[in-house]
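not sure who needs this but someone in the group chat was asking about Cytochrome c oxidase subunit 2 from Parasphingorhabdus flavimaris so here u go. i didnt clean anything up, its just raw.
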Amino acid sequence: MTHFVKAWILAIGLILTPTALSAQEALPAAPVVDPVASSELEAAEVPAEAAATASGLDPALYTPMKPTEGIGMPVDGGIDFQEQFSETGKTAHWINNAILVPMMVGVSLLVLFLLIWVVFRFRRGANAVPSKTTHNTFIEIIWTVIPVLILVVIAVPSISLLAEQFEPAPEDALTVKVTGYQWYWGYGYPDNGDFEVISNMLTEEEADARGEPYQLAADNRMVIPVGKPVKLLITAADVIHSFAIPAAWFKLDAVPGRINEKVLQIDREGVYYGQCSELCGARHGFMPITVEVLSEEKFNNWVRANGGTVKGEAAEAAPTDADASEATTEIASADAAAATN
């Protein structure tokens, strides 16, 4: 009877599998923010100003920066991490190259030497009567102490790096809310008028026209100021995603119903690419991350181009409104006094 039930469950599962796959394929695609830009970018060469205009942004305020080959992106034949442009990334890169790699090479060579030595030294021809020794206090102390020392040498800088990565953001840090969707990203700026930028992957033709790497380039970028800590609030609207920028040593999961926080600071202007790093469905491999790092002046212009407000300007506008309200009150009081007289 048990086998009969299992057979029916398996059969029902096989029947429903094509239906589930068809439903997944029928899921709605990410919203296309700018259909006009897509048609314009099919040309062989499209100037950055045209791209900015097509996206609805004033080219006088913002022109998309062109990426630098080998900076913030993978390189052909690369065997090392990407060049790092954050303090945590530089520290992590140093730990890897100065501590971990030499230790791995050293331990591997030592084990290889011992293996070869044992094979030749204790072969049957050279050791017809094998020793029956089962314990050696000195050797046991060595193979206990040395691994402990190795782990301590690795643990001290690693724990320091881990603590550094999750230090709280300063109070004046810019806040950006990153939301993962199937299969695109949304970047909200609550400190700058709470507008949101929707970011979709460019087609191969569009990426070539803009001079950007295909499957890494996005139509709208997350823009942040250079050298300033940015508090990222990362969440998801549907399934688990992961926001990752290799050149900044940054990776944090986006979980529905939860907000994860981490500080991002990139110390060089440029364009930096990443990808969703958590399997999230059929188009997981097609939701790239493009981060553009600008000077503070250019960042403020980008905010204005998107209809947002700059922090300082909003603070200056508030007293002006209060003064106008106070003046209106004074005029009304004067009019009332005159009417009474």
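also Residues 87-121 form the longest helix (35 residues). if thats useful
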